[in-house]
Amino acid sequence: MFYVPDGTEICGFYECEDCGERFLDIKVVPRMICPYCGEIPDMEIGPDEEMPETHEAAKLLQVVEGLENVEKMDGLLSLAITGGDCEWL
Ligand SMILES: [Zn+2]
User: Fold this and answer.
1) Does 73 fall in a domain?
2) Per the domain annotation, does 60 fall within a domain?
3) Ligand 1 centre from 24 Cα, in Å?
4) pTM for the whole thing?
5) Whole-angstrom distance between the N-terminal and C-terminal Cα of the chain?
6) 51-69 residue pLDDT tens
């Protein structure tokens, strides 16, 4: 398993709207900060301003349920990254 620990039975499949990265995460939430391009604020924020909104560019595309499905998805995405076949969906 590349994205999630062995034995994961449910995870989220995300796509980042900023960098286009697709990945799995063990958290299942509607949106999350992209682990690839996130954490860098887009604009400067003064110390007296409100807390900046977190830039959650990665949105949940699909909830992947079931050990086999998670493993399959993880494998396909890992392949895409390591230069395997692109037609994984
Ligand atoms: Zn991103």
Assistant:
1) yes
2) yes
3) 13
4) 0.76
5) 18
6) 666 789 999 999 999 999 9
